[in-house]
Structures are given as C-alpha cells and as structure tokens.
Amino acid sequence: MISVTILGAGNVASHLYKVFSKTEQVFVKQWYNRSIGSISTHKNEVEIIDDLLKIKEADVYILAVSDDAVKTLSASLPLENKLVVHTSGSVSLYDIDKKHRRGVFYPIQTFSKTAEIDFSNVPICIEALKSNDYQLLKKLAISIGSPTKKINSDQRRVLHLAAVFVNNFTNQLYRIGHEITESEGAEFDVLKPLIMETAKKVQDFSPYMAQTGPAKRNDKKTIRKHLKSLESEHHKDIYKLLTESIQRTHGRKKL
Amino acid sequence: MISVTILGAGNVASHLYKVFSKTEQVFVKQWYNRSIGSISTHKNEVEIIDDLLKIKEADVYILAVSDDAVKTLSASLPLENKLVVHTSGSVSLYDIDKKHRRGVFYPIQTFSKTAEIDFSNVPICIEALKSNDYQLLKKLAISIGSPTKKINSDQRRVLHLAAVFVNNFTNQLYRIGHEITESEGAEFDVLKPLIMETAKKVQDFSPYMAQTGPAKRNDKKTIRKHLKSLESEHHKDIYKLLTESIQRTHGRKKL
Ligand SMILES: NC(=O)c1ccc[n+]([C@@H]2O[C@H](COP(=O)([O-])OP(=O)(O)OC[C@H]3O[C@@H](n4cnc5c(N)ncnc54)[C@H](OP(=O)(O)O)[C@@H]3O)[C@@H](O)[C@H]2O)c1
Ligand SMILES: NC(=O)c1ccc[n+]([C@@H]2O[C@H](COP(=O)([O-])OP(=O)(O)OC[C@H]3O[C@@H](n4cnc5c(N)ncnc54)[C@H](OP(=O)(O)O)[C@@H]3O)[C@@H](O)[C@H]2O)c1
C-alpha cells in the first residue's frame, strides 16, 4: 500500500484524487488546498486540510499546483527528507526545496475538470534523484494503469514543448476550422470525423507518411483559391506558413 | 438497386469500390481506369474497362479522379443526360460537361489506400442540380451507412478549406512534434494518447472551451523558455504565430 498526500485542487489534483481513491494499492492520506471550499465535499472520504502544519507522514507528496507555486509551497512544507514530487512539464526538479527527496510525476495528457480521464491513456514521465524513489513512483503509476517513461529534465522540457504543438496549437487549428465554417453557413460538426481520423492515422503511421492535400501535392491552383477565399489576414498568414512548412518537409518548392 | 460505374482507381475510387461491393442495395456495373493494371485483380468480381467506348448504362457515374481530370474526362464520356458526379472538395460542379445531369458526391474524410475506412465516419456532402438526382445520391450515401449533408458549392469550398486546417495543417503540427522529440532523444510515441484526446475533446466541447496551455494562460515565462529551446527559426515562427492566434481568440495581449 502506497500512502499519498495530494496538494492542490485543480484539474490534475482532482483527477489524481479520483483515480487514487479507487485504486486498492493506494491510500490517500490527506488532501491539501490553500482554499478548502471546492474539495470540502470529499471530507467524509479523506482528511481535507488547508493548514500545512497539519500535514502527516506519507510515502509521497504530490504538488499538483500551478507551476509558479511549486517553489514556495515546497519550501513551506514542514517536512524533511520526504519524497516530494511535482506534476509539471516545464518546472525544474530543482525548484522543489532541497530539504526533500525530489522527483517529478508528469502526466502527458490534457486534463480539464469536466472531461473523464482514462489513466491507461496517460503516460506518466518519471524523474527522481534516488533509485528507490524512482521505483516507488513507477509502482504508483502502474497501480493506476498508466504507462510509465523514465526521462530526464531535458527530455521532459522537449516533450512539454512538443505537447504544445500537438495539443494547444492543434486545438487552435480546430478553432480556426470552426470560425471559417460557421462564418460561411457551413457546419463544423461535419469535420469532426475527419478530426478523429487525422489523429487516429498517426497512431499507426508516421505524420510524414500520413500527409496529403494541396500543400503536399504542390497544387498551386487550389492553394491560390484557398488564400483568396480566406477573409482574415491572420488566417492567410497561418495558411501560408503551414503550407510552406509542409512543402519544406516534403521537399517541394517554397510558395 | 442502384447501379454505379466508378471512374478512377485511386484512394477514393478504391474505397468506394470496396464499400459498394459489399452493399446489397448497390451494384457496381463497371470500373474504369485509364490504366487497368492496378485494378485488374478485381476482374472476376466486376467488369473492368480502360476504353470509354465500352461504357454501359448505369444510374450514377462517379468520377473519382484527380481534380484536374474531371473536366476533360467528363467531356470524353460518350453519354448524354446521365447522372455524372465528381468527388472533389474544390472542383466546381460546372466543370462536369453540361451534356450530363451534374452532381457532387464529396466525402469529407482522409483516404489512403492502406488505412481502413468505416463509412459511418465519412459524411458525404451532396450537390445536384435536379431534385431526383439529389434523392438518388442521398439514397446511395445512406446505403453505405454514411451521414449526408446537402450543401451548395460555396459551403463545399469552405468545408474543403477548413478541412485543410484541421487535417493537413494539424498533421504537420504532429510532424513538428515528431521532429522536436526525436531530435532530442525523447519519444514521439509518448504523445500519441494526447493527440487522440485532443481530437476527442472537440467532439463534445467547442475548440474554444477545450483550449489550455501557456498561450491561453499568457504564461510569458514558459513561452520565452519554449522559444529559446526551439532550434529551428521556422519552428519559432510557427510557435509565435499560433501563440498569437490563441491570444487573439482568448482576448490576451499580443506577444
Ligand atoms: N491541466 C493539464 O492538462 C496539465 C497536464 C499536465 C501537467 N499539468 C501540471 O499540473 C500542475 C497543476 O495544473 P492544473 O491544470 O491542475 O492547475 P489548476 O487547475 O490551475 O489548479 C492549480 C492549483 O494550484 C493551487 N495554487 C495556485 N497557486 C498556489 C499557491 N501560491 N500556493 C498554493 N496553491 C496554489 C490552486 O489553488 P486554488 O484552488 O486555491 O486556486 C489550485 O488548486 C501544473 O504544474 C501543470 O503544469 C497540467
Ligand atoms: N484522398 C482523399 O483523402 C480525398 C478525400 C476527399 C475527396 N477527394 C477527391 O477525390 C478525387 C480522387 O482523389 P484520390 O485521392 O482518390 O486521387 P488519386 O489516388 O491520386 O487517384 C487519381 C485517379 O485519377 C486518375 N487520373 C488522373 N488523371 C487522369 C486523367 N487525365 N484522365 C483519367 N484519369 C485520370 C488516376 O489514374 P491512374 O491510376 O492511371 O494514374 C487515378 O486513378 C479528387 O477529386 C480528390 O480531390 C480525395
């Protein structure tokens, strides 16, 4: 049995609490947040605290708080030589105060409070300074059904950066698709199966192999037509830059 | 029973042939391609031709050929007053020769020969000049399990343009994610569940609601760090432009 104390009550903390609570090998010792309001509904299932002085012994302390809060919160923890980890893709392991045994438990997935999460689809990237700590974090991840990955800080930084491209930027392209269709009386809904299929394709084929369309074919007539129909200069800029990007990748001429 | 003749032997034609062959309400009368090699293996199941003079009566003729070939091929067809449709997102209905009853049967999906296609995930956008023809095309689409959408040429043009954003451009962002991770010894595979989840989220929530990340939060520190770690100037340009795009959408300041 691994005992865990969760600190924070946001997207990540809430999903971790939920999955740990229903995992036999894990016991949630305490759940801390600076403001207790949003989690007080769970007070019959777990000890809820908003006072760091009330913190008890646990095997792991997970700081699932805003990136900027990791440093000060870890320093304020009245503990010594305990395993304390954060869940961030971009915060250094060394931002955790050095009085602790330090580690990272970074779930590569997009969490929001409303959407359900299946932890078998959440690869967890683990870093730890001590090998025993690494083993414990790995066991914790496996107990909730997550695949694990041992990484170093450089790889984590790079994965987080790549995640911005495949998640935030991709979602913005969906948004632009939404804007373009709805502004012209077409329906964004018709594009949803295509969005799923585009994501599904790269589960089995490389994005290089999966590419199709006017930019890859260097179909100048269609590219010109598209640029003409785009009303927003900003959308035109994105169209040009990503068309150029595809043509670089596939060895076509520049626009 | 709807009799269909397919013209072309590429990605779209091959998947249409496959699904029509196994649909009870549809009979594939003939399958034409200018070069017969690639489809000759089907000669025991269907009449294969490479000579337009051998073309017979059918309820619908589907031109699933390259965009540029629609005009001349339709003019070369030795038929009159027959229902002839193309499958393109960007070609005008009026590119089909006016001796035919003209229509469009545009599947909004990404087809490649290797990947399996489930036609219930292929919305088919239908245009026709005559109401009877529209009904027949709709019946054909429904018979293979596809959702249908009545659209006009303007809406089709816009859907095709939006499809470039959510499919080709998105796939290029996956490609950049691939480049960034592999060049730094991290694994692209770890990002695959995130890619699926990003696509899944917008099936239920709007892309506006689904957005997260440093650009939306206007987290300048992380944005600066990311720009610094990107080695390629080209990737930096894309990062900047899409970050700015998210900030426009979510009412943040420009970079
Ligand atoms: N969301 C994701 O998709 C995702 C994915 C992977 C990793 N992460 C990482 O996981 C961590 C948490 O992200 P999240 O999305 O769960 O954040 P969130 O929903 O914004 O929640 C942030 C939490 O941090 C607390 N907090 C903020 N400032 C604090 C401070 N100075 N002292 C103490 N607590 C403070 C907040 O408390 P209040 O409730 O009182 O405001 C809240 O409970 C971040 O490091 C993030 O980078 C997030
Ligand atoms: N692929 C997709 O994801 C997709 C999605 C929706 C709509 N579409 C549309 O569907 C149509 C077909 O696309 P595709 O991807 O199936 O194309 P494709 O795989 O490139 O196949 C093109 C076909 O057109 C034939 N062709 C080319 N030029 C010709 C000419 N001058 N005369 C007669 N036949 C000619 C080719 O014959 P050979 O075999 O002899 O070269 C080949 O059979 C296009 O209008 C495209 O815009 C495609």
Automatic annotation (TrEMBL), chains A, B:
Gene3D superfamilies hit by this protein: NAD(P)-binding Rossmann-like Domain, ProC-like, C-terminal domain
Name listed for the protein in its UniProt record: Uncharacterized protein
InterPro entries membership: 6-PGluconate_DH-like_C_sf, DUF2520, NAD(P)-bd_dom_sf, P5C_Rdtase_cat_N, TM1727-like_C_sf
Superkingdom of this protein's organism: Bacteria
Domain Pyrroline-5-carboxylate reductase catalytic N-terminal: 4-87
Organism: Pseudalgibacter alginicilyticus
One Pfam family, short name: F420_oxidored
Chain ranges of the DUF2520 domain: 122-246
Entry-linked SUPFAM superfamilies: 6-phosphogluconate dehydrogenase C-terminal domain-like (SSF48179), NAD(P)-binding Rossmann-fold domains (SSF51735)
